[in-house]
Amino acid sequence: MSDQTGNLTFQQGVKDCIPTLLGYISIGIAAGVAGIAANLSILEVTLLAIFVYAGAAQFIICAMLLTNSTTLAIIVTTFIVNFRHFLLGATLAPHFQKDSMPKNIGISLLVTDESFGVAAMKLAKKEPIYASWMNGLNITAYLVWIASCALGALVGKLIPNPAVFGLDFALTAMFVALFVFQLQSVPKSKLRHISFLILYMLIFMIGLSFIVSTNVAVVLSTLIVATIGVVTDR
């Protein structure tokens, strides 16, 4: 592939990212506000966006900071929440076999649920994807996310109580929406299986909370139920 084609595919990746930017901006601003509410500085919120780059994990980190969770608990929880990115990167890797290892690592580091979804849609249509296109998609999302979190931190300095505007509910709303969208793509034959897994999650989480802290109970319950889900999936 020529340099000209590579440049065009990078530009196309930027264009293909545009429809997803509203989600990045809204959640990023909310994450920035949540960071300020967790007593982080604007610089710390921005650094969190740069090095963690995960909406759910950033919200969880802020919540755990407010509850004075241990550093180990925060690290373990963040690792578990972000573990799916290993799977996303591994799924895309076969399509970039002609590219160098550094390029593949760069793609995997910046891939998100949204950018993976855009790539998956192209693959479902039997359209080829290239590293340059994927970089355009990922880098655009990454820069917009950082800017949105920084903007949210600035806004958070001006809003003494984010709950008044419902911004504290942003993560919950996002997960509910993602869960509903996910259920729409699940075959009806598996809904019963998922219902039982949700029930198991509640039982384990409540039971373990009597033995260990709530944060650890959530982590352990997630690991146990995820294992049950994989073993019992048909």
Automatic annotation (TrEMBL):
Residue intervals passing through the bilayer: 21-42, 48-66, 73-93, 136-156, 162-181, 216-232
Domain of life, source organism: Bacteria
UniProt keywords, alphabetically: Cell membrane, Membrane, Transmembrane, Transmembrane helix, Transport
Membrane topology (UniProt): Multi-pass membrane protein
Keyword Lyase appears in the UniProt entry: no
Localization per Swiss-Prot or TrEMBL: Cell membrane
PANTHER family cross-referenced by the UniProt entry: INNER MEMBRANE PROTEIN YGAZ (PTHR34979:SF1)
Similarity-based family: Belongs to the AzlC family.
Protein name, as recorded: Branched-chain amino acid ABC transporter permease
Organism: Listeria newyorkensis
